[in-house]
Design a protein that fits this description.
alpha/beta; six-stranded mixed beta sheet; 2 domains; 51% helix; globular; single chain; Endonuclease, Chain A; 434 Repressor (Amino-terminal Domain)
Length: 278
């Protein structure tokens, strides 16, 4: 029997199919066995495994039930949602997949609160604004907010990752959604800063040219201690694994942390910003 070899890095669909095949073989199941457990044909299973057919939400949920992983942090439903949203920016589906396994997450954001720290109301205001601009549909806006909630929930595990967050001062100065939404969002930041696995810093405007990044930056450390970088512009995202390029970004992040306010001073600035909200 001819067996098509897959390159999981070639596309999110290929990664999905390769993982489906790997789990099936780990269970010592033939395609027919998985087909009977999911209610699909063996031809359909083969097509998903070889990325000739795009997986659906229904298929993903059936696969999760078959493998007994429903409700875990690494479901096929979650991967399906990553594929769906990943069409917006290349590299993002792969990044989110790694994010759920990270032991350490370093974030730098400009202009808006980092997604993983956003309240549902704050995230919904941003999504609704994109709808009004015609950038996305109302359905995509709802899915975007739901997907963000899933990413946040995936990090609320028994051994959560260490999270180090540096926000440009613009993140807390830019008012989103009115006083009620913004006050709740600032309260969320203050709660985040009190967690034992977090460090929250603000990079004030007056660091000027000493700011090493002009775009948001994500750096995640995986269980094997390798580091992956992800950055995006308005229209494109890029995932970088090559240490030749990642290590200088990590060094720049360390420099950013040194220039940013210490956590106590950052929390004081954030609290002061809340008082200034009408």
């Amino acid at each position: 029997m001819n067996r098509k070899e897959l390159d999981p890095e070639s596309s999110p669909e290929a990664a999905y199919g390769a993982r489906l095949r790997r789990l099936r073989e780990e269970h010592d199941w033939k395609q027919e066995d998985l087909a009977s457990r999911t209610g699909y044909s063996s031809t359909h299973i083969s097509a998903v495994e070889t990325s000739r057919k795009v997986p659906t939400l229904r298929f993903s949920r059936r696969a999760d039930l078959a493998f007994g992983i429903t409700g875990s942090a690494d479901t096929f439903e979650r991967e399906w949602r990553e594929i769906r949203h990943g069409a917006l920016l290349e590299g993002f589906p792969q990044y989110v997949g790694h994010e759920g396994r990270a032991v350490e997450i370093r974030l730098y954001e400009i202009g808006i609160i980092p997604g993983l720290l956003q309240t549902p109301e704050y995230a919904r205001c941003l999504a609704d604004s994109a709808v009004r601009r015609g950038s996305i549909t109302p359905e995509q806006a709802a899915e975007r907010v739901s997907f963000l909630a899933e990413r946040q929930q995936a990090l609320a595990r028994p051994r959560p990752p260490m999270m180090l967050v540096v926000m440009d001062e613009s993140c807390i100065r830019r008012r989103v959604g009115g006083p009620k939404v913004m006050n709740a969002q600032i309260d969320r930041l203050l709660e985040f800063a009190e967690l034992p696995n977090t460090v929250l810093q603000v990079a004030p405007y007056d660091i000027g040219e000493r700011r090493p990044f002009n775009l948001p930056m994500n750096l995640i450390t995986l269980p094997d201690m390798s580091v992956i970088a992800y950055a995006e512009s308005q229209i494109r995202g890029h995932l970088e694994r090559d240490s030749t390029f990642v290590l200088p970004l990590l060094s720049a992040y360390h420099q950013l942390q040194a220039e940013a306010l210490p956590q106590a001073a950052s929390v004081a600035m954030i609290a002061e910003a809340r008082k200034g909200t009408p």
